[in-house]
C-alpha cells in the first residue's frame, strides 16, 4: 500500500487528535485493509473512499457483511481489554485513504479528548443501526433492495443538498460483490432503476432521491 501525507484533512477532529502530519495509507480497490484472522491491534478511520467487511468460511466462500463509508471507523474489534483476531476482512471497494490508529493511542485519545469520544461513539451507534439493516436485507429483502440501499448510502451527502447526485465511479462487478449477487443481476437492476427514472447511468451513476421508493416496495 502506498503511503501519503495527510493534507486537506489535517484540520479534521480525527486527524488533529493523532497529529497533523501523520502518514495515512492509500488502499487500491479490491486490496485488503486488514485480513480476517490477523491480530486485532489497531483501529482504522476511513478518511475517504468506501470499503466492505467480508467473512470467509473454512471452505473459502466469501460473504459481504456490510459496507463502510467515508468518515467511519473500522476494525473496532481491537477494543476489548484482551483483543484477539479480526473477525472479518476489510476490503476497499473504491480507492480508500485510511488512517491507522494504534490501540493505546486510541484509548488515550478517548480519555483525553471528549469530542473525539463522542464522534467515535456516534460512529459505533450508526454502525449498529446499519448492521441491523444489512442483516434484514440479506435475510428478508431482495438483492434489488440491497443494491438500492448501497446506492443511496453512496449518494447520501449529495442528496442532502440536491434531488440527485453523481456517486463515485464504481464497476458493476464491485457492486455485485457488495450485494452478494452476480454482475448480470446488478446490470438488470440498474437498467430497471434507469427505466423508472431513479438513476441515470452512462459510465457514472447519478442517483435521484426517488430511488428510496424501492426500499418501501413490497
From TrEMBL:
Pfam families: cNMP_binding, HTH_Crp_2
Any Gene Ontology CC annotation: cytosol
GO molecular function: DNA binding; DNA-binding transcription factor activity
InterPro entries per record: cNMP-bd_dom (IPR000595), cNMP-bd_dom_sf (IPR018490), Env_Response_Regulators (IPR050397), HTH_CRP (IPR012318), RmlC-like_jellyroll (IPR014710), WH-like_DNA-bd_sf (IPR036388), WH_DNA-bd_sf (IPR036390)
UniProt entry tagged with the keyword Transcription regulation: yes
Domain Cyclic nucleotide-binding: 1-110
Record domain HTH crp-type: where: 141-211
This protein's UniProt keywords: DNA-binding, Transcription, Transcription regulation
KW Transmembrane helix (keyword) present: no
The name this protein goes by in its record: Transcriptional regulator, Crp/Fnr family
Species for this entry: Granulicella rosea
Amino acid at each position: 500500500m502506498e503511503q501519503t501525507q495527510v493534507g486537506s484533512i489535517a484540520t479534521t477532529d480525527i486527524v488533529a487528535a493523532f497529529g497533523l502530519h501523520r502518514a495515512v495509507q492509500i488502499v487500491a480497490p479490491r486490496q485488503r485493509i486488514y485480513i480476517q484472522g490477523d491480530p486485532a491491534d489497531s483501529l482504522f478511520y476511513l478518511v475517504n473512499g468506501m470499503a466492505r467487511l467480508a467473512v470467509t468460511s473454512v471452505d473459502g466462500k466469501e460473504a459481504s457483511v456490510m459496507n463502510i463509508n467515508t468518515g467511519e471507523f473500522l476494525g473496532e474489534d481491537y477494543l476489548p481489554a484482551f483483543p484477539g483476531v479480526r473477525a472479518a476482512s476489510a476490503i476497499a471497494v473504491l480507492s480508500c485513504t485510511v488512517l491507522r490508529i494504534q490501540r493505546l493511542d486510541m484509548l488515550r485519545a478517548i480519555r483525553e479528548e471528549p469530542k473525539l469520544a463522542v464522534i467515535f461513539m456516534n460512529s459505533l451507534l450508526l454502525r449498529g443501526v446499519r448492521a441491523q439493516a444489512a442483516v434484514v436485507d440479506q435475510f428478508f429483502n431482495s438483492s434489488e433492495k440491497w443494491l438500492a440501499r448501497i446506492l443511496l448510502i453512496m449518494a447520501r451527502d449529495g442528496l442532502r443538498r440536491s434531488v440527485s447526485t453523481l456517486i463515485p465511479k464504481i464497476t458493476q462487478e464491485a457492486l455485485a460483490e457488495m450485494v452478494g449477487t452476480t454482475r448480470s443481476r446488478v446490470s438488470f437492476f440498474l437498467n430497471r432503476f434507469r427505466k423508472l427514472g431513479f438513476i441515470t447511468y452512462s459510465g457514472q451513476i447519478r442517483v435521484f432521491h426517488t430511488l428510496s421508493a424501492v426500499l418501501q416496495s413490497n
